[in-house]
Q: What sequence folds into this?
């Protein structure tokens, strides 16, 4: 036992050391820097071209049997994005970083919209046809083909498989079982088995089935959650100005006495940035995997970039803000009390709408986390395609492992696992950020081409305008 303890401690220390470097230095500043870089190079299209984001989702989809529609791509990526980060993550950020953490979540989202646009436009451009008659793509493909680095694509794919296919699904199942045992007193293992059965029904049906389920469930859950938040806002309309002033003041350390948060501006910034990134995933390289499966409308890679940038806006600016403001308008936030995460959000809603608030949060966590499980799984399937092992036996093994991790995650206290996931996700994000920065010239060219053509009608991607892509992309797709 003592030898095993020594090994376990060594592993925990190694993971902590990696996380300190990756998250404390490289990623926090790297993601912000890349967001600023793309925002400037793309002339802040997330602000000045926002109407195009809406248009890209609401246009009539083009006919193509090999992909999914833009709205399905948006809802599947939102299924993964809108998870426990929006309920538990925001609560953790506000508890550890004070109200100002919300302000930094907004900044991260605003910059992240440009990064999300870039990575998803590239994923569209470099997508391939898999042997099941479906489009596939993502960072592994544009890193491998665009930068001629297949090894980096393979490392990225393996990391994606581990993090999104397995570990994050254990985390989501853990959140469901925790909130159900808090609200309804249910046994956590039984909850895990129930979630695994429901997930199995969806994921064994394949990627189209996932897209169809997400298309129905995601809008329903997002609208219901935002509806309750709106009701709370209307009921407390007199508190809104004070809450907004509190958020901005404490973001810059002018109000850290409120809530007694230690660390002022640094704590607010660090927690807001970290939780914001975890929630909206901009730059992580996850959403591009589903962006590549979509049929762009109009037929130009940029249109899918707009769709995924809108996803970041919905995730953070709308849903995370709803959670944060509901918490700040209640008396549930008590620094040092230990009440944080999902339970803090449950207490805040119970304050606003009575004890049913806790049950509502438990149900919201269920829908948010369940759709995250199927959304995450869809990314893992894309990674199998890149590694060229998306045959029936490997798909069966992956799906079975996903279900095992769901049951295991529901039962465990999974701090170490979450820390390990953070470390692997950090490596994944670094590879992706380097990739999209090196390909940024191409992103700028695509964007200018799109808006030039848009002045005269529907933009179309024309191979003849991109001689530098000869032999890098599947030309049949873009003819």
A:
């Amino acid at each position: 036992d003592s030898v095993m303890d020594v090994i376990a401690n060594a592993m925990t220390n190694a993971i902590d050391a990696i996380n300190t470097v990756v998250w404390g230095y490289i990623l926090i500043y790297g993601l912000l820097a890349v967001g600023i870089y793309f925002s400037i190079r793309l002339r802040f299209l997330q602000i000045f071209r926002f109407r195009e984001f809406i248009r890209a989702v609401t246009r009539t989809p083009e006919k193509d049997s090999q992909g999914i529609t833009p709205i399905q791509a948006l809802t599947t990526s939102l299924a993964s994005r809108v998870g426990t980060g929006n309920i538990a993550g925001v609560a953790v950020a506000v508890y550890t970083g004070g109200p100002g953490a919300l302000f930094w979540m907004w900044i991260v989202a605003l910059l992240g919209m440009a990064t999300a646009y870039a990575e998803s436009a590239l994923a569209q451009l470099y997508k391939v046809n898999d042997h099941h008659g479906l489009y596939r793509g993502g960072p592994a493909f544009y890193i491998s083909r665009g930068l001629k680095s297949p090894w980096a694509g393979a490392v990225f794919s393996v990391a994606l498989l581990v993090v999104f296919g397995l570990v994050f699904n254990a985390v989501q199942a853990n959140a469901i079982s925790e909130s159900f045992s808090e609200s309804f007193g249910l046994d956590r293992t039984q909850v895990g088995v129930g979630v695994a059965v429901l997930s199995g029904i969806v994921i064994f049906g394949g990627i189209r089935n996932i897209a169809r389920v997400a298309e129905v469930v995601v809008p329903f859950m997002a609208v219901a959650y935002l509806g309750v938040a709106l009701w709370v806002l209307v009921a407390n309309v007199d508190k809104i100005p004070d809450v907004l002033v509190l958020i901005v003041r404490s973001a810059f350390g002018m109000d850290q006495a409120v809530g007694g948060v230690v660390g002022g501006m640094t704590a607010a910034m660090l927690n807001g940035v970290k939780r914001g990134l975890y929630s909206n995933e901009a730059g992580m390289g996850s959403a591009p995997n589903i962006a590549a499966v979509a049929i762009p409308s109009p037929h130009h890679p940029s249109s899918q970039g707009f769709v995924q940038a809108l996803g970041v806006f919905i995730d953070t600016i709308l849903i995370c803000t709803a959670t944060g403001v509901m918490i700040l308008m209640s008396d549930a936030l008590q620094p040092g009390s230990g009440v944080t995460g999902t339970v803090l959000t449950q207490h805040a809603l119970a304050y606003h709408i009575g004890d049913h608030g806790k049950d509502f949060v438990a149900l919201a966590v269920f829908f948010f986390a369940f759709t995250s499980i199927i959304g995450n799984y869809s990314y893992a399937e894309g990674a199998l395609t890149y590694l060229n092992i998306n045959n029936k036996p490997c798909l069966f093994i992956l799906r079975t492992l996903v279900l095992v991790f769901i049951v295991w995650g529901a039962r465990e206290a999974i701090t170490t696992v979450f820390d390990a996931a953070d470390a692997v996700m950090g490596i994944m994000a670094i590879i992706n950020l380097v990739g999209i920065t090196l390909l940024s010239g191409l992103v700028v060219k695509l964007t200018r081409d799109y808006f030039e053509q848009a002045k005269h009608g529907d933009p179309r991607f024309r191979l003849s305008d991109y001689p530098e892509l000869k032999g890098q992309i599947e030309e049949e797709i873009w003819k």
About this structure: The chain is about 75% helix and 0% strand. The first strand starts at residue 128 and ends at 129.
